[in-house]
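Hey all, sorry for the wall of text incoming. These are the two entities for the joint prediction.
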Amino acid sequence: MQTRTAKPLAEATVGVGGGTVPGVTPGPSGQPATAATFAARDRVLRARRVRRGWIALALVVPAAAFYGTFVLWPMVQTFQLSFWHWNGVGEATWAGFDNFVTVFTSSTIVGSLLNALVLIVYFSFLPVLLGLVAAAVIRKMATSRLALVARTVMFLPQIIPLVAAGLMWQWMLSRDGMVNEFLRLIGLGRLAQPWLGQSSTALGGVGVVGAWVALGLCMLLLLAGMTKIDPALYEAARLDGAGAIREFFSITLPSLKGELAVCFTVTIIAALSAFDIVWATTRGGPAFSTMVPGVEIFHLGFFSRRVGEAAALGVVFMILVLAIVLPIQRLLRERD
Amino acid sequence: MSRIRQSAKLTGAAGAGVVAALALAACSPSGAGTADNAPAPEAGADVTWACGSEPVTLEAYLETDFPLAEILFEEFTNQHPNVTFNVRTDEFSVLTQNAPRVLVDSPPDIMRLPMVSEFAADGLLFNFDEAADYFGWNDWPGMSQLRVDSEGRRGEGSIFAMGLNMQMTGVFYNRALAEQIGMTEAPATLAELDEVMQRAKDAGITPITQWNGGAEAGTVFPLQGLMASYGSAADINAWIFQQPGATIDTPEFREALAHLNRWIEAGFFAEDINALGYGDSLGRFNDEQALFTFNGNWEAGNFDADRPGEVGFFAVPPVEEGGAIGAMAAPLTFGTSARAENAGCAAYFFNWLATDEVARTINIETGGSMPMGPADAFMPELDETTTTAATLSAAAEVAEHDGAMDFVANATGAIFARGWTPPMQRLVEGGISVDDVLAEVQAVYLDEIGG
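and here's what came out:
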């Protein structure tokens, strides 16, 4: 199998070079080659390239078909629908840019976009920060059993479905839930409140759930990154008199640029596209205080039956995600 | 130079891309108003209003956790062995979002309808006018709520749905807690109700448990009862049925909301109602954590089964003794797709529900609800101490005052989640004035109906 694939590759290298040289040059056998032999060889090589192209294409087609059908085509349709007024069943009428105007002028929709930005703090910055600290601490514990336990416990939320996590936290943050009971236990009963039932605290409550879920992933990624760092660097730093904090900022953090890029990208996308956690805990309430674009699109599409507006919000939202995530990718990767 | 050329090329490509994208966008979206979605041809011409003797399978699409429908199906098959039911169920919210597509793509013969007017206007529902003439449905109480005119307004026009039964809301109370605070009979006026609640509060009992979290403000239940006491049920129906010029923002309805706000400010509701869902609130009532809950007769059967004799029921009282009262009393809407294969048999089934003695008994004893049907139709004997008996007697009282009204959440598809719920949640938090709540609801309503 290996020899069969290796041979055409080797020939291809020769073929490409040979085919592009103009005029009379020595042929493969060392005899002067004529234009006719070149033409014949070109034909053979082209046929081979075409055949190989077809095989490659055949291998790509199933995945491409799925990607096209379930990702690209819905995106095209969403874009198309965003220019129409449509209730999902009846006649669609041309809307021009009306739906986009609504997206930028409706206080509820703009509010949902702002809430998504606030959630980035909880879903992304907080887990990355805590993940860094946790990973650094766990790394110090090296291979002790405590490190294993800590790693497992912190990663556990990742394997819980988001809806289940949302429901669990809904109970914990309720009037008689674990959080309030704990506050009462330590004498801070006056701080006990229905966290998800007040506009002032609900978004923070939802954010905490997101942070709890994302922390494990960030911790594990950063820990994996830390184990790749050459110990000689730390040794050298220590010889130069660096302390633990200096080591962290001068060696650990710069070495984790790739992992941080992944952490930020994944968690920011999770924050912006949050749906499950919000749906399971507050459904966007009370009074739209936890409304996020994902839930708003659902509301517009399925309650209000304004498919065009929902699609327009989807388009704007996708551009917003790209506008936030792409610069982060570039910033954290370009110096690698 | 080459950079300029490259950037010109890029600009050109981007421009061409935008033009192509806009050209594509200008094409009518697939699935929108194509022949596939065009209203079905006017049905009814060749339909016979019976199930015949050949085997028939009725396709049914229901909400989950609603066993009453399936018990009725079972009884219908007992009486008509050639008819079987193929039942598919979904959560109500899922059913709501799927409904338009299901009505077109896999047309059910019997389906729980989350809304009627918009589907009727889109030509998705079977028109029951001929069946109504054949069976005599036009004289039955409550039928106006199932009519939709050519403008998509409810109240008048053709019949596009039928009720599985009549649902009605009011106040359930815990008999033991009521006795504890000296409430021996149902309050006769709102002032008496206020006084009872104050007594409960003073005795350390939460007067009302109600859900008001997420996208469902259950405080609309007491509000609508108060609105019928202060204003008129007919005005509320006009608003729900989208009659021209109808408004919810009237001085009477503001008074009703101000009354509800006094309950909120007096601490008659639990402090965390904005975090409570329907199930949480019902759970607290069943755990005897509150004296009252405003809910519907669909729970009466469950109370009779799980807590026999423990729960009473009364309609929201009038402002002054003998004054106007009202209650949300609406048919539990079921309908048939305009493309359904067995619309005639479905109509026969709907008629059977309302007229067959066994079916009526099941609806009352198991469902705790009043069946549809003629005013003088058969009624089974009921034990007076049951919750169901209390709901039926309250229903009769409301009917006497002509106080039946539809639920304000049924005015448009999104009015509950986006119109009522946010300002009612803010009212509970003290973040909005009474006057602004109804103005806000009216603004969302006008936006929804394009007024």
